[in-house]
Amino acid sequence: MKWILLPILFVTLAVSGTALAQPSPTETVKKTVDDVIKIVSDKELKKPQNEKRRRQEIKRAIGTVFDSAEMAQRAMARHWRDRNAAEKKEFVDLFENLLENSYAGKIESYNQEKVVYLKEAIDGDYAEVRSKIVTARRDEYSLDYRLMLKGGKWVVYDIVIEGVSLVSNYRTQFNKIITNQGYAELVKKLRSKNKEISMP
According to the UniProt entry, where is the signal peptide (predicted)? Predict the structure, then answer.
């Protein structure tokens, strides 16, 4: 996975809230891109004394990006059915915090990269929005969004960066830990990681 793309990834992922008329998946993604960029570009929010507020705004925006429960379940794959209700809730919370806390700082390094929307494909309640990122040096990277229709709005359940699925990447890591060390060890590692990268 090309981690250098993550600042751009999370700037361009936010999914809009309620709307009177359901926008297309591309419109949904594109609409909120401006809102997120506004946060990271706000001169007032960039001031050191506003760091906590800025991070809270970023976290709020990131929180609207993902269907965390869907992503967590897909990342756990076959191990999900072995968890009880309390474990599932805890894992979703840990996974959501991991995503939010891991990339809040990276979002702030957004540097006017250009997002070009290429193609949209809808198949029932599922959709894919294909795009590319163009940097100031004119380097280009593919960034595709996988969305599903839930509760009357499109939400992102996976992102594919240069052909690598974010959910699949986590699934591989989680499966290896659970298989070799057990589920309890995965939870321990997630708690430790979240504490290490917790937001101010």
Answer: 1-21
Determine what percent of the chain is predicted with pLDDT higher than 90. 46
Q: Which domains are seen in the chain, by residue range? A: 3-196 (3.10.450.710)
The answer to whether residues 33 and 11 touch, using CB atoms and an 8 Å cutoff, is yes
According to DSSP, the residues that pair with 20 across neighbouring strands are none
17 pLDDT exceeds 70?
Answer: no
Distance between CA atoms of 160 and 166, rounded to whole angstroms?
6
**Token pair listed for 38:** 């506004």
CA atoms of 29 and 166, how far apart (whole Å):
17
Q: What is the DSSP string of 69-134?
A: HHHHHHHHGGGGGGS-HHHHHHHHHHHHHHHHHHHHHHHTT----EEEEEEEEEETTEEEEEEEEE
Say if CB 1 and CB 141 are below 8 A apart.
Answer: no
- Position with higher pLDDT, 13 vs 52: 52
